[in-house]
Every structure is written in structure tokens, then in C-alpha cells.
Amino acid sequence: MNLSPLQKARYEYVPKLPGMLRNGISKICVRNGEATTSVADQDKIKALFPNTYGKNEITFEKGENNSPAKKQVVGVILSGGQAPGGHNVVCGLYDALKATDKNNVLLGFKGGPSGLIDDDFVEFDDAFIDQYRNTGGFDIIGSGRTKLETTDQFKVVTEVAKKHGLTAIVIIGGDDSNTNAAVLAEYMAANNTGVQVIGCPKTIDGDLKNEDIEASFGFDTATKTYSELIGNIERDANSAKKYWHFIKVMGRSASHVALECALETQPNICLIGEEVAAKKMSLSQIASQIADSVEKRGNAGNNFGVAIIPEGIVEFVPEFSKLIAEINELLAGENTVKFNALPDWDAKYAFIEKGLTKESMAVFAILPQLIQQQLFLERDPHGNVQVSLIESEKLLSALVKDELEKRKAAGTYKGKFSALHHFFGYEGRCAFPSNFDADYCYSLGYNAFMLIQYGFTGYLSKVSNLSKPAEEWVAGGMPITKMMNIERRNGEDKPVIRKALVELDGKPFKYFAENRDKWAVETAFTYPGAIQYYGPSEVCDLTTRTLALEHS
Hints:
Blueprint: H1 5-11, E1 28-35, H2 42-48, E2 56-62, E3 73-79, H3 86-100, E4 105-109, H4 113-118, E5 121-123, H5 126-130, E6 143-144, H6 151-164, E7 168-173, H7 175-190, E8 196-201, H8 219-240, E9 244-249, H9 256-265, E10 269-270, H10 273-278, H11 283-299, E11 305-310, H12 313-316, H13 318-330, H14 335-341, H15 345-355, H16 358-366, H17 369-374, H18 392-410, E12 419-424, H19 426-429, H20 435-453, E13 459-464, E14 474-479, E15 484-489, E16 492-497, H21 507-521, H22 537-540, H23 545-550
Parallel strand pairs: 3-4, 3-6, 3-7, 7-8, 8-13, 9-11, 9-12, 10-11
Antiparallel strand pairs: 1-2, 2-14, 4-5, 13-14, 15-16
């Protein structure tokens, strides 16, 4: 295998563990915290999880390890979209397992949850694991988006677990994957299978967090990667002085990535979906807000700038959400076939005009034709609009252009406007993990084995105090049910982990809100540069601005 110099060096990096996990596994004990309840719908969640609800939070600390000795055969899966550091979770789990007893076994099930169902796996050994230490990606065993949520699936998983003598399953995933982990843990406990289930918090979107989970892994690396690119574009914009760059970043359900990138790079504009929803802003109001910045800068001779757009921005706009809901109804059932059979866009437009309310049609009519057509692309498995396919960065720049033309005609805008578009998504999902994510993920995996050894199930591996040096991190676990509530999904009430949105009264957003008016007019760009892996700790072990502000 041909390796880059950085890849060779990263193999040799030794991740930092929390202080209490450095004592040696035989010197780690459990301290029980308080019993937990779910964040909402307590009676309903308790009824659905009678065997795993209400358990105590726990913390690991220095002391005698009094867990019963037994051979452990653990299965691990990577679930959902990739996030930097996933390999280190597996490596940490493997190292802790082997440090306890070299006869312990770790099986990696391939392709995500479907690997458990299909019994497609690899048994890890030192040579295999060593190829993936501190590297990006999920290619060690692959990932997948199959959901483990039906009784039939659980029965198959139980048989696979019995065949291999599994004592535990570790699911590395986001909110949906860890919801599935909680449901699987309950099934295993209710049926006395003896199989524990532990989750690990993963998502670059940053929406799997709460008072206990300070950060999901991958967020640090992804936002640093995007911020480097945005900083590069800002430098180019300030050099060429003739383009406005509209940059869409990951984050369909929450705007954490956009906010962190804005804190890192100080662009002229950054939209926060949660604020748009709270203020019930329309598309025209958003376009006008951006146009204000373009006008003031343009009239001062600065015909360039940068705007950051969260991926799911249109879903936060009330009038657009209503439009999408009406389109979903309009194309329900056989109407999709009728619509697709129409000969051209004019005929389809007439069909749409007849089927939408006056209010939604008014919104639809102001959209550029390209965006109108994107709303009628291939539907998702539930027959709904695939909002992620909408090029919102192009939509907003087109609306801004229209608004500026009106202002130019009125004589208030004297500048020039030319837009370029970017979408940063896949660029950050499999990057070499930052030192923070390498350390955090290794700790999560190591800690997951400690939860297994002490017999916990339905727990999420938890490492906190993350704004401090790794020596001061605190390792432990929390019942997954603590994060759950009931939501309406596909016409049914389902227990799910509550997504964490940007808090408009939180320190990160407040800092952004205090400075954005200045950034909108001035050229206040900052240039984070590439992720640093070696050098002074204040450079190479730097946490996100979000985490630093939250715990300042």
C-alpha cells in the first residue's frame, strides 16, 4: 500500500485518554449518579422501555475494578453518514477489549445495520486495526442507513448474536441510529438474551447534543475543514474583489455547522435556520437582509462578499414549509403518475397552479424556474419532496439579484453583483480527524467497553468536560432514554432522540448576533487555515469556537 507521509505519521499518533481511563482497566470503578427521566413524554417513554428506562447516569473514576470476569465477544457497526473519527471509536473499543483479556473478540459487521442482519462480518486483529488508526472515513467496515426497528429484524439480530456468542453490540451513529440502539437494547433485555447494547454519539451536523453530550464526534473536524475552505474563498474574494460567494454547508435539521463556520471565518452573512423560524421570516425578507449587506458594501466600492447558508434553510421558512406540504399532498397517490405524464413544463406549471392555494402559489411564483423544477424531482421513499436536492444557495442569490435590480432602478444601489455558488458537504465527512476528534473518538470507544464490562445496556458512551485538556475529561455513560421524546413520524407516534437545535439564547449565537452587523458591512474575514496535527497544544488541540463559548 502506498501511504502519504501524513498517513504514516498519523498511524503512530497515540490518542489522549481522559485521566481516569489512563489508570489501567483494573483500576477503574463506577460511581452512580442520579436516576434519569426522558426529556419529555415520560409516561409514554417509560411504558415503551420498561426494562431500560430510568437508569442512573454513571461516571468512571479511579478505584478497584469489581466487574465480573468473563470472555467478551463484541459486535460493532457504523451507522448512517460518515463522520471523522469513526475508525478511532473502533480502535479504542478494540484496545480496551484486548487490554482486559487478549482472548476477547471484536467483530465488525459490514455495511452498517444490514451487516448484523446478513451476518456479514470481519474479526479484527492487530494488523487489521493498525491500518485504520487516526484515519478518516468509515471504510474499515463501511456504513449503511438500514434502520433496526422491527421485531422481525430484532429476531434475526438475536440469532446472529447467539451464533457468535455476542455479549454486546456497539452502535456508532447519530440520533436515529442511537434511537434504534435504545429500542434494540430494550428488546434484548425483555427477551433475556444476555446481549448488551451501547451507543456512541456521531454526527457532523452537531444536532446530537444536550447537557450531557457536549459534542457529537466529527463536528470538530468537519467544521474545521469547511472553515479552512471558506477562509480560502474569503481570501480569494478579497483579492479579486468582484464576486459574492454563496456557500451552502451541511446541516439539514439544525444550523450548528453554519454557525461554527461563521464564528471561525466572520463572513458578511450567515443565515441561522432556527432564527428564521423563530422570526417567521419569508424568502423575500431573507433576500432583503442579504441585499442590505450587498448594497452597503457595493456603494462603498466593495462588490464582493461571502454568505454562509445552512443546507436545510428552506425548511425553516414557514411559507416554504407550507408550500412543500401542499406539493406533497398535490402529488400524493396516482397524481404523481399524472404529473409526470404531462408533456412539458408549461403543462406541469398549469397543473401546479390549479392545485396550490393562492398563498403557496404566490411563493412558488417568485422562485427561479430551476428551483421550481427541483421541487418536483424524484420523491423520497415516503413520497415527499427531497429538500436536500434544492439548491438553496442558488435560490437565495437569484432572489437577491432580483431585489438589487429593483434597488438599482430606484437609484439606491450603485454597485455590481455577480454570484458564485459552492456546497461543502462530502469534503468534510471523511477528513483526517483533528487531534480533538482522534482523542475524543478513541476515548468514546475505550469508554464503551468499560460500560460493557460493567454490564450496562441501553447506554450512550459519554465523555464530557471537553473544553478542557484531555487529562481533565470525564468518562461515563447515560441511558439513551434520557434524550428521548415522542414525535410524529410517517403518521405514527414514535420514540426518538430529540434533535438539538441552535439555541438563540446560547452564548455562541449571542456572540454571532453581537458581531454580525459589523461583519455585514466591513471586510472582517478571518482565515483559520488547515487543521494542524503537530505543534503547540493551543494550535493542534484547539476545540471548536462553539464549545469554547458554551463553556467559557
